[in-house]
Queue: 4 jobs
Job 1
Amino acid sequence: MASEQAPTPISELSLDDGGASAARAPRWRELLFDRVVIVPVLIAACLAGGLGVGLATLRQQVLNSEERMLAALSAALADQADNALAAAQTAMQATAEEIVGGAWVPDTVVAGAVLRARAAALPAARQMLLLDAQANVLQAADEELEEPPHARADYFLSALGAAPGSAHIGAPTVWPGQETPWIPLSMPWSTPHGRHSGVIVVAADTALLLGGFERRSPAPDARLRVLRTDGTPLLESDPSSGWPERAGTLHPPAGVSAWTQIVSRPGDDGRRHDLLLAGHAMQRAPLAVVLSRDTQVVLADWHLQAWLVGGFALAALLVTTVLSLRHAREQRWREHSQRDLQRQRERAARAFAAAREGLWEWDPASERHYLSPRMRELLGFDASASAPPATHALSWPDRVSQDDRRRLREAIDAHVRERTRDFSVTLRVMPPGQPPRHVRLRGQGLRDAREQLLLLAGTAYDVSDEVAVSEAARRLDEQLQRARQFEALGALAGGVAHDFNNVLAAILGFGERARALAPEGSALAGHVQHMLSAGERGKTLVARMMAFGRTGQGLRQPYRPRALVQEAWTLAVQGVPEGVQARLDLDAEDPELVGDGVAFFEAALNLLRNAVQAVGDRGSLRARLSSETVDQPRVLWQGSLRPGRWLGLRVEDDGPGIDAEHLPRLLEPFYSTRSAQGGTGLGLAVVHAAVRDAHGAIDLRTAPGEGTTITLYLPLPEPAAAPMAPGVEEAAWSGQGEVVLVVDDEPALVALLEEHLAERGFEPRGFSDAELAWQAFEAEPGLFAAVLSDQAMPRLGGLELIERCRRLSPGVVTIIATAYGGTDFGARASAAGVQAVLAKPLSWSELDAVLQRLLRAPG
């Protein structure tokens, strides 16, 4: 056996990125970001942070404990003050009731004894007075005490004239000869006859409200303050402390009996201090008891612990950082050389991954493959399992179709045979349990010295997106070509229908005149009627041709939907199998709609035919035409219903239904769920266009296996005014000799129109050549009252003729009669000054109504 060719050595490209730094020692600044340093430091920092969280928790616990203690003490002091106020109020109430009841009379020995007894029984009471309405003292419990003036005191003024039994509290007042202020309490009293006569006053020491705070004070810095409900201070335990000024104005919360809060206020040392406040509202008076402590004092022990713990944590963090830096510096020396090599490998791996290409090799001798991880992913193999052997490169029957395997084999054989540089082929890979994908293979063969194939190697990448874009472009091109064919066919149909309409117009027009002249009930009248019926059917056929080649002229004519639905039903159910149950329900009401009746007919016919095709050989379908009143806005599958009256055409079948994946594209032109059965995809597109032009909506209810129900909604016009009384008819209207210019390239139609207009009292001037008609109008523009013209005429079209006429005579009435106006004819006619557009074949009643509306002067 011949010796194998030695493999060609492969040189590796080395990228120089400053690798010379391996020779120098790492810097301390670089080591700060090393993982060996960061991890221990982070752990130490986390421990220090845990200590900090513990300290913060302990601080909050200390504050919470102090808050609870202050809250309990404030509640106890408030209850004690309430009890003292209740006793004072009871004593004053009893005194007032005894005076009213006549038990004793003021300014008597008995009155003095009563006041002294009750003042002695009250806690902290220093004086009890009985004042008259002029603030004169009628009776005093202690006759020796000097009295302050009462006439202008707030406790006297607030109680004088107040409701009986109402108690009042005044501002602390320093009485003559006293060092501390007393708290005055007052209540009105009346004579036995019910006349307000004065005020009862109880003067009490501040202990009445402060209670035993001095004995119960939790700490030397604790302060007690009594506030009114509006936040103004009434009393404080230590007025010399300056606490009211530091705390500022405090407003007890409304509707809350107890509260705690922390306020920040400047202290005596010029720095801001946090004050811990706990308040409790009193029940007997509109007052609140507020206790406070300086948080600096409360947290004094905690601050000492925080300094000790913080110092320990900082020292531990510093030691950990130093030891970690030393360890990292030693490790950096060992890893520096390996890092350079690792960077090169990482660059190569990143470049290969960025390409998103798989690497493959196939050994013909062993029939074994080597597949890179990306290649395994492309082919759908498990990352840990080895690829099974194959008799040819990448030819697994469960993943690549027979046709693709044949193309791959042909591409490789051509590459080996013709010695091309490489080969390329795109395969459709179908991994089990995964969606299919398209993979493009590139490769080349390696040969030995005898030119024998040793190895096939190459790359592969996913081109599913490219193939999808190419396929979408191909389908769009097919749709475009199909749309152009339909557009050309529609234009042809419109032109043919136009010419055919001219013939029909002559047949129907002269036929109507012949029927009018034929004796009623004669054979001639019957023959003429058969001719007119055939002409009407021809008119319907032409209308359908125009609907196929519709160009958006936007004609709006009155029509009755009931007859159109009946006719569409007759055409749709012709020849249905016996196993199909078909039912049509028509509402008794048949409203008149204004719009495109042909479009409505085509929409109904398409819906009915779709239902017949969905049912197949056995099943049921039902159609119902009815009106409905909508009270609230309603959002449907396509469009929405506003409040008002609507006409609904519902078509339902029990066929297979429609899958949800088809619903978003159901109204797209050329999209069909029955392409294999010959569906064109135009049916529902025609339905959608007709409903959209009529400002309607579509509702769809369907599910696989549950049938389909489609409802078309068209707006109904508002009810017309009440009709005239029976027997009263509007007098027939006729012309007054107005000259009407009649232009049509069909001489028979010109003659027919001239005859009809002459019978209606007009003076027609007919032309079958638009240029001659223009010359006649240009010669005498003031002669003509109206212009009635066809649109599609040689040399000069109807719109151009009307534009010329309106430039010479702006007031002339202009009417276009056409069966085919081209693209956006409605908008172009309005821009040209056309006042009315009539559809061919003409209806004499419609023509008469338009002339009457445009020519008759308003009454």
Job 2
Amino acid sequence: MFKNYLKTIFRRAVRDRLNTSINLFGLSVAIASCLIIFLFVDNELNYDRFHKDADKIYRITTHETTENGTIRNFANSFLPYAPLLESQFSSIAKTARLLPQSVSVSDDKKLNVFQEPRFFYADPTFLEVFSFPLIQGDRATALEAPDNILITKSVAKKYFGENEALGKVLHVEQDYTFKVAGILADLPEQSSLKFDFIVPMAAAEAIWGPWIADPNRTWYYPPVYSFAKLNTQVAVEEATQYVKSVEKQFLPDHVADKRSHSLQNVTDVHFSSLENELQPSIDRNVLYLFIAVGIVILLVAAFNFVNLFLTKIVLHLKTLGIRKVLGADNGSIGKHLLLESLAFLFASLVLAFIWGALFLPGFNLLMKTQLNLLSVFKNGVILYLCGLLLLISVLVSFAPLMVISKYRLMAFLKGRGTSLFRGKKSSYIQSALLVFQFVVAVTLIISTVIMQSQMHYIRDKNLGIQQDQVLVVPVRDAAIQNRFSAVKNQILRLNGVKEVSAISNFPWEKGFYDFETTVNSNGQVTKANANTLLVEESIMNTLDMTLVKGRGFSKEYGTDSTMAYVMNEAAALKFGIEDLENVKLAMKGISSSTTKEGRLIGIVKNFHIQSLHDKIQPLILTVSPESYFLDNILIQLSGADISSTISEVEAQLKAYAPGRPFEYFFLDEAFEQLYEREVLISALFQYFSIIAIVIACLGLLGITAFTATQRLNEIGIRKVLGSSVVGIVNLLTSGFIKLVLIAIVIAIPIGWWMMTKWLEGFAYKTTISWWVFVLAGSTALTIAFITVGWQSLKAATTNPVEVLRNE
């Protein structure tokens, strides 16, 4: 019996090739999309959960209140805080601090030298707090000696090849020697901590200087990433109360006045968007949105399946009637329908894995992930998916069975049973399913167009500074910083170099410097912690900043290096400055010896040096009083042979620091990286929009073909009576086009609302124009018309003699 069922199902599938192809293609592509989306979401949601007792590990975050009451939230804390908290909070078992630094590392013979950005100083308790696997070495003592170093397996191969790395020597910053005391397994992809080297925190005293071990001097710099592992699983609210009580009692007054701290579970770090995050994060809401998109695409395909499965039953009602005459009961018919739907769903699932295997490598490349299709069998994704498909199968099998069981056999045997599935109620259901499909398709098109519009807005927006052909060379060596004037003059002599300057840092690296500043404007005194960039005199020419008032820095004015300030329009507005007369500034902490006192010499037009997610902040520029602040050389290029110019710049810098690896990047590329996640999400929405509208149109094609087949006799009679092809095409298409128009009307407010919410994450954003909705609607309408029109035209040009000869 089972074998006969399968033969019948196969014959029907071959006979109705259009219906079969639409079902298999639509469902398989939808299932493949769901598999990839669910794999991606599962991968993201499991970040940092591989650590033992991950629910007890917390990151210590910092909250600083500015003068205007704004609270800035930082992912980092500072060196003295974690030991203080551990000493006063009994529920903390261990704390571990991490201090990142980009350093040069060479092998024992100093032959291979690399600049390593993922170098961390860590407390000896690091391996007690975290569960990173140690392949070789003693976990208990690996970080005890100040000259020990831990490296990952890949780094061991990079520096020592296939030779034994344990016990070998590595040189850091040329002058500091470390012995390999342990080798860690390569970090899991799902780790929010990405490092290649770990050395004891005690080593920072030798490399940074003895000042870093003084708790009184490290409450503001350098920023560290502190983690606490609790003895027991304490509620976050309870832990926060302990933290607050410790701060009230033990924090120095100058720190407690403006700063507070909180605990963030390590499994939430990957979804955190605080300032100074170590790694790019992702919003949980984006993941939930992807889940919704995956489910909706699957529902679109499932509705296609339901619609087309019911049309297939209509075409075989006589066969069902004959089977009932021959003794088949409802149970037997139900089993057959269930088996047929399951067979289609199983075939779609198999085909989906083939699609997944084809498309997953491209997805991994796009999203920079390492997803494996076989993971669906490990993490339960396949069980949820199979359960959903089984539910669909049961519904599409027993819904028609309930209808069939209510009517007499003769209705089916005489060919009148089709009316049971073409009544108003059935028509409403079919129409609702089609409307839903196109609502989804149009909404995704609207979302894609607006996302692309925002990306174009970001790329085309005038940032207020020169970003094209600006080469940025990070400076890691004091030999270059201490002789910057000589270095600058050498680079300026090169062909293809227009301007050269230097800047302390970019905000996306470690935020702004935040110095206590007093502004005296015509006797009106304002004190504030001011965002500050420390620069070299030529900064304004190099970045083509626009002066609004006054002048820029110049070596022609001898006092500019010690007594001059420039601020942007936002800072001038904040301090109430309308002209430059009698405006004096005093900045504390900028130099270890004295307060830097000077006057305001210029105001520049606001410029973007952060992501467009953030509003332009008040900013003060001043010439760096110390050479060690100049961490980035900026070179504005003018020639066409950029690669040759870069090689010449490298040669010049190598003359001053021969043992230092040469690094560089372009400023425009750095800005583009700030929106990497948004670009990827926009691309994914584009692909999913295409998938959704293709599946919706395939369903529309199938329903149109069925409708045309059912109305062939009517079409034949109309043609005999003189109806034109255009009139018949209009007859067949008008109903479907109305449904698509209804879907467009419903989709427009949904798409507008979704994109308005998404754009709220940008301080500077595109406007949602009317043409977006016209474009989305006309696209859907055109594709739907082509789909319906083609099938309708095919039916309208059928010879009426062929249709009516048997009537």
Job 3
Amino acid sequence: MRVTVRSLLKLRAPVGLALVFLTVLMGYWASRVRIATSFEDFFPKNDPNIEIYQKFRRVYGGAETVTVMLRVKHGDIFNANTLKKIYGLQQEIDGLSGVNHQEVFSLASPRVYYTTVVPGALLLKDFMSSGAPTNEQDIQSLKHLVEVHRGEVQGLVSNDNQAAVIHAAFGERWLDYHQLFNQLQAIKKKYEDTNNEIFLAGEPVVRGYGYYYLPLIGILFTLAVAAMIFLLYLRLGSYTMWWIPVITGSCSALWGIGFAGFKGYDFDPLMLVVPFILSARDFSHGIQWQGRYHDELQKLGDKYEACAETTNAMLPPGLLSILADIAGIIFISLGGIPVLQHLAYVGTVWLASSLAMVFIFQPILMSYLPVPQRKPGTGLLARVAPQKLQEILRASTEWLVHLPIRKGPVRWVLIWGSVGFVVLGVISGARAKVGYSSLGTPLYKPSAKVNRDLQAIARYFPLDEGWVVFESSSTFPNAGNVLDPNVLRLETDLGREMHRDSRVLGYSSFSTDIIEPFNRTFHYDFPKYFGVPSDPRLAGNLWYLYLAGTAPGEIERYISSQDCRDTCIRLSLRDHTSDTLSEVEHRLWRFFDQHLASANVPQLKIHYLSGIGGLYAAANHVLYRLDFLNITFVLLVIFAFCAVAFQSLFAAALFLFACVLANFGAFIYMRWRDIGLTIDTIPVISLGIGLGVDYGIYTVARIRDEMMEGRVLESAVVIALKTTGAAVFSTFAVMVGGIFFWAFSPAQFHNQMSLLLMFLMATNMVAGVLILPTLLVWLRPRFVCRYEGMPGAAPVVSDHERGKIEQGLWTKPESITGSR
């Protein structure tokens, strides 16, 4: 290794220029990255729910729907002013860019109608065909029509007539969330007044708020970076050239963002916290290298030798740490969710670039720059703390660095407390919630405007929809097509079953909405004919009359094509929480298990659950399995790499214990805060798993280095904690100092994840700096103790001195006072 590093320094000019060229190239691609949201990328592509959604979304409507509710404060909606607003909202929303004009529904929509019987014909009339009524007589006539035909406006006008909604679907590929959000806010401002309130809901609105808060998120990002640089200065500012980790960290960021631009990936506004975490990780490696470089420079007095010795000492643990970091994020790509795959690939390149930037470019850069000079009287404590506080901090530090080598109750509290923490973490992980657990979006606080609007609308109308698709291998008029009476009766029976579930607020199918009422109407409204006709030809005739009498696109809400091979059943769901979706799926499975065989339609294939509810259900199917696989693979990789790096299975087992100890604390925290595993939280948890183990790797590597120079284990632990331990704490402070500002984000996701990351970093630091050294001293494993007593630069400490070490009373010999 030493020969390799020195050879690299001899080739520093071409290697350095090559890295600069690649960084500039990546900078070009970084400039091409957009801050944008792709709704499709948040769900697993290969899940059956997603596949059926992709197949039928163009005819049955997409999941990108917006709900605009108008609610009156006094009276009901049947007044001239409010009805005029409803009619105006219909026209405004139908004119928005990207809207599907065939999927805009409201009381004022020409696609919402009622049936009247006249001699020789059935007439379909919309409720506000001639515009909003202006006189009291017309208003009361409209109100009467709504009361009589309540079923036709179910889900559009509330039962108490105090609210009405406009539902609109948008094309996903051409949707600009930022533009749409601004247009909706302008419409809201235009139509609200003292008696009419307007509320907005839907996935485009939720995602649009990310752009609304983007300037504030940008300010928090800037403050976080400034805090990290300030804390970096406090750590390394006693030397000139303290800013070098900022340069290498920024270059690593360019590599990661440049790779995203090269691949055409976008950054969602709410996911900007992830690139920040990756940048903080790059900073930490640079800080570790720079701190060790100052130690070596002080010892050797030659910057070239210091660069070589620092890289020789730091590259093995640094490489192991970076591999652990990469392992923490790369495996989230296994779930097949595009946004997680993109984060995994970008994060891998971003973290891997630290190897080039910190352990190749940073020593090359330092070899060209002047020798850093130490500024007298500018230590961290001297700059920020009064004398009395300095004394307290020094005493506390002395107590902490001697804590792992002390015998007595403190050691057992650390050991058995860590075991209990692991057990609690495993139990919490086994009971981790998957998906959303409350009404609204967990991306924002319950008091946020987006959630207040969602809660207001949910009082009157369902906000989520799930599809059940019947697909037949037979076409009309052959037996088994979706107009077969057996299939229609299956739809009706399913409706009766689903209405028993309080989570299902509405049910819509071709059988219940069209066939049954039309059959009754054509038989002079005799109630006994409200049902499925026994003759498939009559069912076909009713379908044809509906097709011929409605506007293009109407029939496609139920049956996608004229060969009648598929039909869509729509379930209006109370919410898309994990409990709701899993119970609805289970009820559907139980119904078809009991009734499908007896329906005698072997040509029929059933698909469920799709629509927006099905998309979230698909994510839930993947997330728990993905989290389990991710943790399993990360722990296996860390075990394997540590076993190779330290040439000991016992060492690998110790690191595995520390990793589980620190990172299963995430599940304890998430259970305490009632946070579920979602598409948004998985990458943050995964990063925490990989990033925190670095602390233990650097600390144990330094202990082993000190042992290899002939020191006893106790003195090696104390020296390692005073040097590398201090660097680890500085790294922890820099990361936490930057993450801290995200706790003030308007996005609850940022708040929860920043607190979770600070908790993870703290538990990892305790595990790496206190628990692991305590276990080493207690167990005295061979992978470090085999070096004890080897001839080297430092003498072996006597048994008498070892006893003083264990009591915390030992004064280090002069030969051990210095550190490498």
Job 4
Amino acid sequence: MQELLGRKVETGIVDRAVRDAVRGRSTVIIVEGGAGTGKTALLRHVVATARREGVSALFASGARRRQPEFGAAAELLGLRRPPAASESGSDDVFAALYDHVREITRTGPLVLVVDDVHRIDGQSLGWLAHLARRLSGLPVLLVVSVPVGEWPASREVYDELRSTVNHVEISLDPLGEDEGARLLELSCGTRPSPQFASLCRRLTGGNPRFLVELARQLNQEGIGTDDQAAGQLPALAPPRIARYVTDRLARHSAHSLTVAKTLAVLDADARHSLVKELSGIEDGEVANTVLGLTELGLLRAGATIAFVHPIVRVALYRCMRAEERNRYHLGAARLLAASEADPPVTARHLLAVGPTASPEVTDLLCDVAVRLTALGYLEQATACTQRAIQSSLSPAHRIRLMLQLGVALSGYDHHVSIKYLRNAGSGVRTAAERALIGQHLALATAALGDLAGAIGVLDEHVEPVSQANPALGSRLRGYRQVLHALAPSAAPAPDEQDGAGGELAARAVRLAWAGRDPAGARAAAEAALAAEGVVDSGALVLSFALLPLVYADRLDTVERYLQEAEQRAPAVQVPELAVLRSQVALRAGDVEQAEAAARTAVAAVEDGLPEPVVFHHLAALVEALLERGEHEQAEELLRQARVPGEPAAEWRNNHLLAARGRLRIALGQRRAGLADLLECGARLATWGVRNPAAGSWHVDAVTALVALGRRAKAVRLAAEQRQAADLWPTERAVGRSLRAQAVLATDPAERVALLRQAVAVLEEAPAATLELGHTVGDLGTALAETDQREEAREMLRRALDLGQRCGGTALGDHALAALLKLGARPRRRAQTGWDALTPAESRVAELAVEGKKNREIAGILYVSLRTVELHLTSIYRKLSVSNRAELIRES
């Protein structure tokens, strides 16, 4: 006889009860369990066990249709027809049936089994209670089953059955993870991966029936049981589960099926009030129905109502007719829109409604798309707008939607944005609309790397817009100046000095790049920031206005404007602002914030956007990861992005070359890294960038040149940096220059002296904690080389502290290694276990333990799916686990 998985305790109880009957002792067993937990399977086990022991076993089951009085008793005892009660009542029949049982036991012990006792006729249930009270001294085992939450019509009689002295209750719980995995293995023929088995258990709640039906569908569709196949599980809807559950619901109460279908459509949005409105059922009836289904084990009620078994929701949803689903979804969308609920939730229901020409649906789609765009849900906003455009619209309405969609996509999908903006351009009438098209069409074209084309777009729009609205024309001329600054090979920019924010920002950044007039660059930047509407002009113009102040280390001022822009900017500007935020945070010595902002930028642009945009944002993340010491993760990110050996000569790619060069050197690829850094310097020169504060590539290049024996080139580069620092004498620029000179020093004492000067200068810098930490670490190493061990340890401890304060793991690791080499015993940073996780890894681990899927984690943390996967790989390594199930157990 096949063992019932996960029911070792329960089968042990009934097996002992059968043996007790053989020994002449009586027992009553009541088996309770939720739908599909295996009550019938356990009762069949009882019958099989009895017959194996040579015991007579009689079986009956509650009928789905109405039974005659004593019908179940007659079926159980094998009577030809149910006995009829006399006028005086049922006592005579009870006594006669009892005598019949006693007569059977004269030939040996007896096992009586009744499945679904809640559905048998009332007289038969009364007789079972009568029998149970009189079993003492008879070799009889009586076993009945009843589902949780479904009670017999006469609850009082059932309670009498449960109150017998010699009764035992068995409650069937869901299968555990190991038992569920074993059941899948037996049903599918292959052992499931831990992740696959864990997800199956979550979807089915460990319900044996649902697991078996899920396995049946896996076999029918040829789906495997490995990690790769796990992604297909949430969409599976076994039809036999739908039939089983709908049958149970139809019998349960008048409103059960309607409420369950409503919940299946609402899913995570199922609040009591919304269920009442959408189902059209009175509030009290909804509450009673939900309570009944909760007792039945199908629902879990709280602030929202959810299915205990997610697979039941999917199965119910799929078995609904399309028009029925559409009716529910449209009703939900109406209710949610009227209550100004969360726009993504409303959009989900609207998009689930099939194609329709309904003006009401079109209006709802347009309204929700506007709200989604403002909140940054660009993908859903685009989907809603595209669906609306496909509807029957007036030409003017269609043009407005195309313009709205083109603007929304300008920072998300540049090719499609350009298509919609050009289509909208053929029908717009107002100067404001033309200016909006010109601005976003130019920026989308520039993002694709075609700066000349972007400038051409603005050339087409400036004059017509200026004639109708001089202020808007001035704004477009400002954008044109900014794009000219990014395109040194383009024709010279027109001489436009009308005080527009963009024009002032372009002038300020050119001065800052030249690095010869710090005061003039700062003044131009402050004038640009003071210009009307500059904060609302877009991330590119604002970045140009702020860069001179970033180079001047006026980070407090930058922070103020950046915060204002982040609060007011539309969602399409968020990625560019996040890159600037990352760069500012890194300069200020906040590596954790720099990494988080860079991940936000990368997550927003990783799918299908042009290379310059992706590479620019990726470079910010690589720089943060370098400070974290996460070299392998940074290398993997670049590999996944398929960065070419020679990126195109585009302004954004300069950032990439500098970051990749530093990474390659950190990985020991010194020649390749140096080539990137020198190419970065050569390209910056074509833009007229001479300012040493524009990047830290010089120090790394000088160090690599010296290591490769190219001293003459290193000397020239360090001299250029020193001269540039004299012209732009911020503490950071001067400190970097001194640090580069220290690399060249052949006399150890001279190296120490130069590094002391660098430290002293950087200590006066307003926000150069990380830069100071690296320089202090270099000084500690140099002191150790001159045998000044005590002071060397002091400097290295300080570098270790600065690294820990900044979140600079790489700096901390370098200082720690040097201290250990000097015989010091600082407190070691954990390498394994939960303490070894970075803040970002800790957050990912917490969400994974809560049961969130990778895509959900990515959405919550605003990072890419690939980033989550990389974090989990690092988490598994540090915690010595190999999958999610082990991670949950380890927590």
